[in-house]
């Protein structure tokens, strides 16, 4: 065997050895993956994400996928001649739009179940309506009525625990019910955060359309690979975080404060970003950790 070929094989072995302590550390631990953005609209990236999550399952993790579907919902809303409207990043959801959203999210959900199944892992798709998983009230945007948009009040994770115990990979669509059993569309980031807190997840991962967190979004050298929850809150208070990243970062710090061990913000457009972040020393995104967490990765 030529030296170049041998070096290539040894390099693969070194990658596996580097991953070993992380596999040991998180064996049988729950990881919640919020899946959305551009990674959902690109078929190749979609398959890479599903491969990553499936691998996590096969090496002993207990992953839960919470998915969005905003771009696809907007596409179908446009098909029926309606214009998508947002207030503070929340979709204005009338009765017809709610029906479209539920239809689209259920289709996305079952497509993901199929893709996981093709890789040899048993998955079950549920919505937040199943088993009372996501219980919500009506959400308002600065006092404005935006329709059937839900604000999560309670998570009953029993259906997720039952699926994990039976060795299934749960895939959750962010739809909930209120006390009158009315259906509501729920922001997928909010749903992932609430579920991670309810199940005591060791990791919560947000797949986004940016590389991670920057102190100054216009200065690539200001990238932050790791910061504590307190420092994240300070950035918010200083007004350095804005746009769609603001509610996401608030969700991250809330999750840490309520018991989630680590939160990761990753660029879902990068192939196998999940594996690179979790199984390598360097990582590629931003990790938010508890104030007293000093252990690497």
Write up this protein.
The mean pLDDT is 86. Helix 4 crosses helix 5, helix 7 packs parallel to helix 9 and helix 8 runs antiparallel to helix 9. An 8-stranded mixed beta sheet has the order 5-8-2-1-11-15-16-14, sandwiched between helices. The longest helix has 24 residues. The protein is 42% helix and 25% strand.
**Poorly predicted spans:** none
Side by side, the strands of the main sheet go: 5-8-2-1-11-15-16-14
The dominant shape is globular
What structural category do the secondary elements indicate? Answer: alpha/beta
Mean pLDDT: 86
Q: Tell me the β content.
A: 25-35%
Describe the protein's topology.
Elements: H1 3-25, E1 30-35, H2 38-41, H3 43-58, E2 62-67, H4 70-79, E3 86-87, E4 90-91, H5 95-118, E5 123-127, E6 134-141, E7 144-155, H6 158-165, E8 169-173, E9 175-177, E10 183-185, H7 188-199, E11 203-208, E12 213-214, E13 223-224, E14 226-228, H8 229-237, H9 245-257, E15 262-267, H10 273-279, E16 286-289
Parallel strand pairs: 1-2, 1-11, 2-8, 5-8, 11-15, 14-16
Antiparallel strand pairs: 3-4, 6-7, 9-10, 12-13, 15-16
Provide a compact summary of the structure:
The protein is α/β, with parallel strands linked by helices and 297 residues long. Helix content is 42%, strand content 25%. The protein is globular, with a radius of gyration of 19 Å.
């Amino acid at each position: 065997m030529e030296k170049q070929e041998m070096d290539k094989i040894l390099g693969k072995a070194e990658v596996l050895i580097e991953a070993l302590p992380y596999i040991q550390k998180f064996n049988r631990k729950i990881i919640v993956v919020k899946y959305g953005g551009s990674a959902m609209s690109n078929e190749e990236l979609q398959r890479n994400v599903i491969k990553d999550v499936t691998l996590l399952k096969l090496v002993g993790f207990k992953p839960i996928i919470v998915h969005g579907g905003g771009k696809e919902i907007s596409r179908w809303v446009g098909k029926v001649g309606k214009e998508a409207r947002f207030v503070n990043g929340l979709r204005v959801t009338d009765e017809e739009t709610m029906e479209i959203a539920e239809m689209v999210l259920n289709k996305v959900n079952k497509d993901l179940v199929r893709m996981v199944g093709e890789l040899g892992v048993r998955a079950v798709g549920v919505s937040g309506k199943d088993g009372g998983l996501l219980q919500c009230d009506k959400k308002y945007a600065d006092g404005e009525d935006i329709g059937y948009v839900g604000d999560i009040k309670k998570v009953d994770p029993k259906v997720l625990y039952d699926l994990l115990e039976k060795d299934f990979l749960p895939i959750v669509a962010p739809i909930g019910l209120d006390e009158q059993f009315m259906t509501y569309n729920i922001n997928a980031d909010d749903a992932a955060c609430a579920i991670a807190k309810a199940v005591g997840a060791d990791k919560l991962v947000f797949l986004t359309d940016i590389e991670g967190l920057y102190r100054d979004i216009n200065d690539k050298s200001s990238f932050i690979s790791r910061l504590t929850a307190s420092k994240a809150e300070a950035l918010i208070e200083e007004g350095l975080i804005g746009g769609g990243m603001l509610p996401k970062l608030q969700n991250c710090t809330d999750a840490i404060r309520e018991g989630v061990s680590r939160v990761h913000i990753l660029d879902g457009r990068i192939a196998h970003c999940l594996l690179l972040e979790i199984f390598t020393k360097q990582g590629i995104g931003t990790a938010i950790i508890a104030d007293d967490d000093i252990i690497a990765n």
